[in-house]
Amino acid sequence: MNRLTSDPSLELCPDFTSYIYQTSRARLVNQNNNLNEAQVVGILQAVWVVTNNTHKVQWQRQLQEDQAAVTEQQNLEDTKCQLQASHLKDSEAAFLEEDRKQNPFKYIPIPNRPRPLCTVHNVLLSDFAITKLVKGQYVELYYWTNGGLPADARSTYRTADDECMGPYTSPGSSTTAGAAHQVARVIPDHSLTPIDFAQAVPRALASFQQCGWAAERIQMLAAFWQALMRHDYWNSIDPLAQRALLVYQDEQRRAWHQAIPLPDGAWDISILDDKEIKIIFETIYREDRCRRDDEWDARHLQSLYPRGALDDHSSNHRVRRSRRASSSKGRRRSASPPVHSNSASFYN
User: Which of 79, 88, 125, 308 has CA atoms 20 to 30 A from the CA of 262?
Assistant: First the structure.
């Protein structure tokens, strides 16, 4: 069936009595001798009406089919747009999630509150220390001392290039992050003074909590440092006794951090090993005694020998004393898991 191009209801019945239909009327009259011209006109009008009514029905059906086709096409377009929007939304969500993983610093919520006054020193850590803290690694207590905070965390930073930041001390001079990971003057734990140690401990514990360390680890380290500061050596008037505790703290905390990812795991560091502490103290005492003896011998020899003879005699004397000291010390063994293959290097 041919498709209609106009609405049949708008059409008017033609005038079949007009001159243009004369040929059609004459043909019908000649074919039907019983019909006159008026009857032929009536027949033509009746045929036109029937045909027009048929076209009207066809037109309505055609409109319904067109509307159904338009609706179906619109539904397809809507479904396609929804799928595209859903895919775009999923892509944006995946990108946002990946960006959150790669750049978590951008998405840390900032509370609407005034600057906290009591904890300002807890947040002024160096980027190097914060990076190691976030990973749960060992960090020297120097970074929380009064000397460590201003020297490192309060440095002025400016952009060195698109990928790194570097501290600088004057315009035109900068150091990239790759070359300035750690401050050159960091003091190891065993060389800290008791006052610096006592200042650093509470600040370090607060930083551990801010960086999301497990509560059990923080409590264990707090108990470890508290046990050290309650030890008899800590309140001794002998500075070597306090240094022995600081050396013990440095060795054990390093070994504890190193043992955490190992198959056997770490241990309760808050349980002090008094035997190991005494061995460390004896080692420090012997080295200090040898140093004092060498200084006394040097002063004594200087008063007895001329300058040229003093050099030869002092050299031979130091060799003999070094051999005696090394044979008397021997190799001490730790009661905890091995920490350093040569612990004597800590005390020099």
Answer: 125
